[in-house]
Amino acid sequence: MTSDEIIDLVEMVVLVAVLVAVGKLFQRSKASGRLGEWWNSKSRVEQWAWLVPLIAVVVLIPVINPPFLTTEPGTNFPITMFNCALYALVALGLNVVVGQAGLLDLGYVGFFAVGAYVAALFTSPDSQLSKIPYLWTLPLAMVVTMFFGVVLGTPTLRLRGDYLAIVTLGFGEIVRLLATLMPPLKGNVGFQDVGHPPGTKADGGALFANTNGTPWYMLTIGIILIVLLLVGNLERSRVGRAWVAIREDEDAAEMMGVPVFKFKLWAFAIGAAIGGLSGSLFAGQVSFVNNQKFDVPTSVLFLAAVVLGGSGNKVGVLLGGFVIAYIPFRFTALASYKYLIFGVALVVLMIFRPQGLLGARQRLLARGRQAYQRLIGRPEQLSSDSSLVAEKAGDSA
Amino acid sequence: MALLELIDVSVHYGSIRAVHGISITVEEAEIVTLIGANGAGKSTTMRAVSGIRPLSSGKILFDGQDITKLRADLRVVRGISQAPEGRGVFPGMTVMENLDMGAFTRKDKKGIAADRDRVFDLFPRLAERRTQVGGTMSGGEQQMLAIGRALMANPRVLLLDEPSMGLAPQFIQQIFKIITEINKQGTTVLLVEQNAQQALSRAHRAYVLETGTITREGTGKELLSDESVKAAYLGVT
């Protein structure tokens, strides 16, 4: 090992240790959970009072360029941050499918690719199609990928567990191979000069040039916040309850009258739309799309972001996305070992924190907060009292 | 007219035949029980009734209407609700959230609140533990929760799949008492059981299921005193 690699390794271990420690503070098990408890004890207004400055810091990070976190001189820091935010958005979308509805999707990169190609086809001069302004491709990409999600989901969501994972894995590959084989999608040659949002800098250059990460980062953060609000509302709605039920016990959910197939399809379509959205952001920033970026390892990285952050926890998966994208840029000496590192990290995580950095909340439903308050007023008790003691003994016998 | 009628129903898992041409009738306000050994096809029959398993042939009528092809969730709306085998509560949800899932198909807030009170009356233990997470409860409590959750759909017929499974004798007694109580309040019950003694003494009518076919039927009392049933299921020789 060279000294660069050793320094990177040490720094990375420090960073990961800090993250795990923060995760532990949020843990909601009986004894711990100081930070989580403190957070839940605040009213909505107080929570926002804390959130607003926090969000401000997050938004301004590429401008602040903090010393330990910076990836320069290796990689431009704002661009790194854009990539982190992009992965966070992808993880947020995949979390709807994997974390909330419990459907294992190994081909999520397929939706990401479709989104990227929509942006390329409708804005790049290399494409034969008529052009539209770049920002319009974002909603268009969502609609198109949603359609793909429904097309893929309709026959496959009747499958369960492993079978679904295999089919989605196939879907991701099909999209990549189509991009390679279909002449209008231009395979390896790809599309140059994909569009970007309007706006000029003081010096007359484009605000959203692909060398200028900060505006792209801020745009992505803005989109993440909107998606976060929408997904949060869904999570607390009837739809969210149905997803949790399906994830916990699909048969029981069906017996309770949940139209399981319909809600799985919704999860798939919404997840797909967010994947498409991130794909078109990616295409815009890189300003070039070809068939190289949409392979299986990328899909696995997306899934790793969700699992690492905490499947089912929105904030957790955002963190997971950030970390997964950030590590190869920051620890460049170790970048070629990135899959080894993620593999080891996942194994270690599954041993010590199987729920991810920030695990899913125990009580995910509409009254979660109130239920939690009641619990604090009267702590959880296990069945050791009165009339059912005999029955307990009988159960263990 | 019978409330629930299975006519010549067969169910296959792939090429394996689990249930072969059985016919069962459940009249309004009855408790009907289906007894049989492991692998006789009891749970498969229940899953066919609630629409989780498709039939390979035969018909299911509910309230005179053919529901053979009806989706499972729409059967709940019609009034068929099941407490699954092995309890099947949602482990990460609290008691209240589990009960709310039971009322998933309903919009009438008043009716839901009234049914919640009814469930808490039947199972005071659930009222005490309304904020406890399902997965952390004891087996007996989970069974109560599964039954309570099924009642939250305000069913016309309640399907109970082995409610006594894995419970201590003292608690089995209590569960069966509550089943009788639920029936007295006007809910029809179709009960699948291995505990033939309890099931037969509580049921109005009963069917014996053996390797996918019905070998005997009659009132609970008749089967309780039937020599072959005694020998095979009651442990009396």
TrEMBL record, chain A:
Transmembrane segments: 6-26, 47-65, 77-98, 103-122, 134-152, 164-182, 216-234, 265-288, 300-327, 339-358
Major subcellular location class: membrane
Coiled-coil regions listed in the entry: none
Source organism of this protein record: Labedaea rhizosphaerae
Pfam family, one: BPD_transp_2
GO MF entries: branched-chain amino acid transmembrane transporter activity
Domain of life assignment: Bacteria
Keyword rRNA processing (UniProt): no
InterPro entries, sorted: ABC_transp_permease, LivM-like
Protein name: Amino acid/amide ABC transporter membrane protein 2 (HAAT family)
UniProt entry tagged with the keyword Cell membrane: yes
Protein keywords: Cell membrane, Membrane, Transmembrane, Transmembrane helix
Protein localization: Cell membrane
Record's bilayer topology term: Multi-pass membrane protein
GO CC, one annotated term: plasma membrane
TrEMBL record, chain B:
One GO term of the biological process aspect: L-amino acid transport
Molecular function in Gene Ontology: ATP binding; ATP hydrolysis activity; branched-chain amino acid transmembrane transporter activity
Domain ABC transporter: 4-236
Record-linked SMART domains: AAA
CDD domains named among the record's database cross-references: ABC_TM1139_LivF_branched
SUPFAM superfamilies assigned: P-loop containing nucleoside triphosphate hydrolases
Keywords in alphabetical order: Amino-acid transport, ATP-binding, Nucleotide-binding, Transport
Family: Belongs to the ABC transporter superfamily.
Protein name, as recorded: Branched-chain amino acid transport system ATP-binding protein
Source lineage: Bacteria, Bacillati, Actinomycetota, Actinomycetes, Pseudonocardiales
